[in-house]
């Protein structure tokens, strides 16, 4: 499903267009990709990664490429591998109101209990990222929006859209209309309850999947960027999701 022609390796960063790049995912740790949109006024990162070291690796690569650090970081959702590096980012962060609510609940938990809850759900990747619970630092967002927010980074506009998705109830889609590129985070995946669900693509429910397919069609992107896979052709992705939906309707 990966559109091999959509990305060109640039010694660490991968290029979708002149203004849109991403730091590749790291399957060994289940680290998602970190998006990067370069505007004339400021640059925007997509997701804060799973930890401070994840962010540091991203920033080191940006510096090697001569790219400015992001002034804003947008969270696609609250799951730990996308948000636990938030404390280490440069500049300000943005999340939708539901993501912020989820982060607030996580911050209320005792670190040991939080860590053990992930481990008990068999998230082996958490063990690789964090040896001890005390290394976990959870932060909240600086800027919170509700359903929609438009950013003008300088000759490139970025739409932030809170959408219902199969993966979570707090998905933020990041759309760049001039490029017709849509960052979806993990929104095209099903719900993940354990490591085993990572292998199957997760658990899909008809209502959420139906609503999400409708949203994708309305946005009319040309390229969809998965957090753990990279760029895919939007037509192919919608076709794949429609086949999943048809299977749910016949069962």
How many distinct helices? Answer: 8
Secondary-structure element order, as H and E? Answer: EEEEEHEHEHHHEEEEEHHEEH
Strand order of the largest sheet: 1-2-3-4-5-6-7-8
Number of strands: 14
Distance between the termini: 25 Å
Low-confidence stretches: 1-11
Radius of gyration: 17 Å
Estimate percent helicity: 25-40%
Counting helices, strands and paired strands, the structural category is alpha/beta
Q: What topology emerges from the helices and strands here?
A:
Elements lengths: L7 E3 L2 E3 L4 E4 L10 E5 L4 E4 L5 H13 L7 E3 L5 H4 L8 E5 H12 L2 H10 L3 H6 L13 E3 L2 E5 L4 E7 L7 E6 L4 E5 L9 H6 L5 H14 L3 E4 L3 E4 H17 L1
Parallel strand pairs: 5-6, 6-7, 7-8, 12-13
Antiparallel strand pairs: 1-2, 2-3, 3-4, 4-5, 9-10, 10-11, 11-12, 13-14
Write up this protein.
By secondary structure, this protein is an alpha/beta fold. It is built from 8 helices and 14 strands. It has helices spanning 52-64, 80-83, 97-108, 111-120, 124-129, 195-200, 206-219, 234-250, and strands at residues 8-10, 13-15, 20-23, 34-38, 43-46, 72-74, 92-96, 143-145, 148-152, 157-163, 171-176, 181-185, 223-226, 230-233. Strands 1-2-3-4-5-6-7-8 form an 8-stranded mixed beta sheet. Strand 6 (72-74), helix 2 (80-83) and strand 7 (92-96) form a beta-alpha-beta unit. The longest helix is centred in the C-terminal third of the chain and has 17 residues, at 234-250. It is globular and about 45 Å long. The model is unreliable at 1-11 (pLDDT under 50).
């Amino acid at each position: 499903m990966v559109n091999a022609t959509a990305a060109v390796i640039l010694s660490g960063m991968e290029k979708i267009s002149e203004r849109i790049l991403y730091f590749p995912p790291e399957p060994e740790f289940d680290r998602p990709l970190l998006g990067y949109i370069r505007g004339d006024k400021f640059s925007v990162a997509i997701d804060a990664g799973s930890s401070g070291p994840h962010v540091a690796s991203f920033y080191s690569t940006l510096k090697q490429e001569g790219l400015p650090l992001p002034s804003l970081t947008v969270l696609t959702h609250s799951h730990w591998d996308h948000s636990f590096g938030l404390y280490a980012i440069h500049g300000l962060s943005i999340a939708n109101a539901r993501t912020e609510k989820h982060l607030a609940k996580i911050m209320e938990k005792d670190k040991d209990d939080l860590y053990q809850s992930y481990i008990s759900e068999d998230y082996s990747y958490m063990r690789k990222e964090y040896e001890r619970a005390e290394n976990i630092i959870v932060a909240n967002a600086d800027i919170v929006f509700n359903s929609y927010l438009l950013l003008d980074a300088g000759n490139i506009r970025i739409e932030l859209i809170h959408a219902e998705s199969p993966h979570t109830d707090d998905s933020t889609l990041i759309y760049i209309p001039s490029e017709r590129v849509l960052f979806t985070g993990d929104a095209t995946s099903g719900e993940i309850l354990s490591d085993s669900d990572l292998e199957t693509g997760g658990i899909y429910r008809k209502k959420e999947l139906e609503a999400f397919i409708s949203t994708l069609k309305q946005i009319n992107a040309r390229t969809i960027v998965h957090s753990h896979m990279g760029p895919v052709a939007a037509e192919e992705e919608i076709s794949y999701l429609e086949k999943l939906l048809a299977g749910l309707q016949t069962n």
